[in-house]
Specification:
By secondary structure, this protein is an all-alpha fold. It is about 85% helix and about 0% strand.
Length: about 160
C-alpha cells in the first residue's frame, strides 16, 4: 500500500512537469514558425507565410499567459486576414480568421495579460476588422446562401422534385 501511495505521489508530481515541458516546446516551435513566417511575408511568399502563421495560431492558445505569445497569436491572425483578403484571396478562409481574431479578443479583453496600450492597439484593429472585413464577410455569406437557394430552385425546376 505504501509503495502504491509513493508511486501515485511521484506520478502526480512528474505529470505537471512533463506537461509544462511540452508546452514550452510547443511555444518554442511557434516562435520559430512566426519568425519564418515574418521572413516569408517580407519576401512576398504569402502562401508559405500563411502556412507558418497558421501553425502559430494553432499552437498558441488564446488563453496563454505569456504576453509575448499572445501578441504573436494576434499578429499572426492579423497577417492571415491580410493575406487571405488582399494577397492570396480566399474570402472564406479570411472570414474564419476574422472570427478567430474576434474570439481571441473576447478571451483577451479581461485577462490582464496585455498592457493597456497594447490592448488598445489590438482593440482598434478589431474595430477596423468590424468596419471593413467583417462587412465583406457578411456579404460573402449572404451571397453564399442566395446561391444555395438558386441552386435548389434550379434543381427543382429541372427535375420537378423537391430538394431538401
Amino acid at each position: 500500500m505504501r509503495n502504491l501511495m509513493l508511486a501515485l505521489l511521484s506520478l502526480a508530481l512528474l505529470l505537471p512537469v512533463n506537461t509544462q515541458a511540452q508546452d514550452k516546446r510547443a511555444l518554442r516551435a511557434a516562435d520559430l514558425s512566426f519568425s519564418a513566417a515574418e521572413n516569408d511575408y517580407k519576401k512576398s511568399n504569402y502562401k508559405e507565410a500563411a502556412q507558418k502563421y497558421t501553425i502559430v495560431v494553432n499552437t498558441v492558445p488564446a488563453s496563454v499567459d505569456s504576453r509575448k505569445h499572445l501578441e504573436m497569436r494576434l499578429d499572426a491572425l492579423i497577417k492571415l486576414v491580410d493575406i487571405y483578403f488582399y494577397k492570396s484571396v480566399n474570402i472564406q478562409q479570411a472570414c474564419e480568421y476574422v472570427n478567430e481574431y474576434s474570439n481571441t479578443m473576447n478571451a483577451v479583453k479581461n485577462s490582464g495579460v496585455l498592457r493597456s496600450t497594447t490592448l488598445m492597439k489590438y482593440l482598434k484593429q478589431e474595430q477596423d476588422f468590424a468596419n471593413k472585413e467583417a462587412k465583406q464577410c457578411e456579404g460573402y455569406e449572404r451571397v453564399g446562401s442566395d446561391m444555395d437557394k438558386f441552386r435548389k430552385n434550379a434543381f427543382e425546376k429541372e427535375f420537378g422534385e423537391k430538394f431538401d
